[in-house]
Structure formats: C-alpha cells, structure tokens
Amino acid sequence: MNKITRLAMVGIASVGLMATMNSGASAAAPETNAGPAAVQDWGGGWSDVRDVSIREKPSTTARKVGTLKKGKIVKCWVAGCSAVDGGNYKCTSSSPTENRWHEVNWGGKKRYAATRCLEWGRVA
User: Fold this and answer.
1) Which of 15, 21, 38, 117 could form a disulfide with 91, with the two C-beta atoms 3.0–4.6 Å apart?
2) What is the pLDDT of residues 13-43, one digit of tens each?
3) What are the pLDDT digits (tens) for 92-113?
4) What is the pLDDT of residue 98?
5) Element (H or E) spanning 112, and its range?
6) Which residues make Cβ contacts (< 8 Å) with residue 62, sequence separation at least 6?
7) What is the pTM of this model?
8) Which residues have CB under 8 Å from 96's CB, separation 6+?
9) For 51-72, how does the pLDDT look when each residue is reduced to its tens digit (9 = 90+)?
10) How many alpha carbons fall within 13 Å on the CB side of residue 122?
11) Comparing C-alpha atoms, which of 35, 19, 24, 29 is closest to residue 124?
12) Could you report how far apart the first and last alpha carbons of the chain are, in Å?
C-alpha cells in the first residue's frame, strides 16, 4: 500500500470517528430555551447543579422573567457571550459576591443570567 492510500484511509477513519463523537454529544445535550432562528448558536450557559433565575435587567432586584432549570441550556444573546456589570449576587450562601451578568436570549428577548452561577461555552 502506498503512502497516499494509507493517508486517505486514515483520513476517512478520522472523519468517521469525529462524526460518531459529534452525534453522541448532540444527543446528550440538554434542551434549550432559545427563541427565534436569529439566536446565535455560538455559545450559551447551563448548570448541572441548580436552577438559575433569568432577569429582565442585570440585577437581583429586577423582575424575574423565568428560571433556567438544572441541566437546560440558555443561548447567549450574541456570539461571544457578552457580559455586563450589574447588581451584586451570590450563587450560594457561601460563595463570594459577584456582579457580572451574561446577556442571554430568553424567548427572543435580551435578558440576563448571573455569570458565576452558570457554566459557559459552545452549544449546538
């Protein structure tokens, strides 16, 4: 077998492995609370530990518009998952006080989730 044939076979096997790995990850992903198709698929937040409040503005005194249930995903408002300074909060009674809030898409509207209470990263 020549070098080109071997390289082609390795490449085909790699593509098959990648497709298998990606399809398994997608099937295990939690449901989303995303709005219309304009939502960026670049990133989002989730918690496998607790439910997290979604607020109208970046403050614990702002109106609560929903709850992101444990294991679910909320998508970022824009690609890159922008965050802003806002009111202070604690994720738990023993955690430090924080004030960063991520802009998220909740029902097609820009809303806010406490940054430190969620994990953030790429979601499908």
Assistant:
1) 117
2) 443 433 333 333 333 333 444 444 444 456 8
3) 999 999 999 999 999 999 999 9
4) 96
5) strand 109-114
6) 55, 56, 87, 112
7) 0.66
8) 90
9) 999 999 999 999 999 999 999 9
10) 2
11) 29
12) 40
Q: With 0-12 CB in 10 A as exposed, 13-18 as middle and 19+ as buried, what is 95?
A: exposed
Amino acid at 40: Q
Distance CA 68, CA 70 (A): 7
Task: Enter the DSSP assignment of 63.
Answer: P
Three-state SS at 83: strand
Helix residue spans in the chain (DSSP H):
3-28
Amino acid at 56: E
Q: Which two tokens stand for residue 124?
A: 């499908």
The residue type found at 60 is T
